[in-house]
Amino acid sequence: MKLGSSSPIIGITTYGRNTDDQVYLFANYLDALRRAGAVPILLPPGEHQCDRLLSLIDGLVLTGGGDIDPQRYGGSGHPTIYRVDPERDRFEMHLAQLALQQPKPILGICRGLQLLSLVSGAQTLVPHIPDVFGTQTLHRTEQARPIEHPVYLNPGSRLAALMGAETISVVSWHHQAVDVPVPGWTVTGRAADGLLEAMEHDTHPWAIAVQWHPEMSHPDDPHQSALLTAFVRAAQASQVVDPVLPQS
Fold it and tell me: CA dist 109 to 1, 79, 112, 199, 242, Å?
């Protein structure tokens, strides 16, 4: 039985199979959601009954990871594209499409933002950020590791309100990005180089996507903690309360 006052169950997508035929996920996603008051469960690629999975959870996190297959958006190959996983792409795109049709909260992180853009109608992605935006703002190090940089949030946006600031520091770890905003979403955050860093759905009750990694800053950064806490609270508020049945 799911009670409205209980800790919400959050489904988290995982990375695809590695060379040892294992699926995994960095534990900081789990740690951050648990600290925010959620019960996380892993959603590995390959499942076809996405509607059933969504019926079991109160909120969905679409995580970061390898690049989306360029064939999914008519893109071309690039030497920097890595860890393409068709099984994961199929699963997460189907899951995201169904989730956007339901009122349960959705949080897209890094790859998750790009994925939500594609299922909402984006026609392309920036294949490698330095080729288009230069290197004035680094979105990952030359060794392909995380790096921090500022993000500027739109005044009056939900993100700015719940994070309590219009300029925040984020942990960034990506080399691809959404280049053109998609219908149904409002861009609410950008980096100094103009790169799209955050967007909010126009009609969904709670669907936010960020290009950075809030789980890497939590719990030391109060702004990132506020984002994750707001997501978990929204999931808790959306829980279905089962009716109390009379005793037989």
Answer: 29, 24, 5, 11, 31
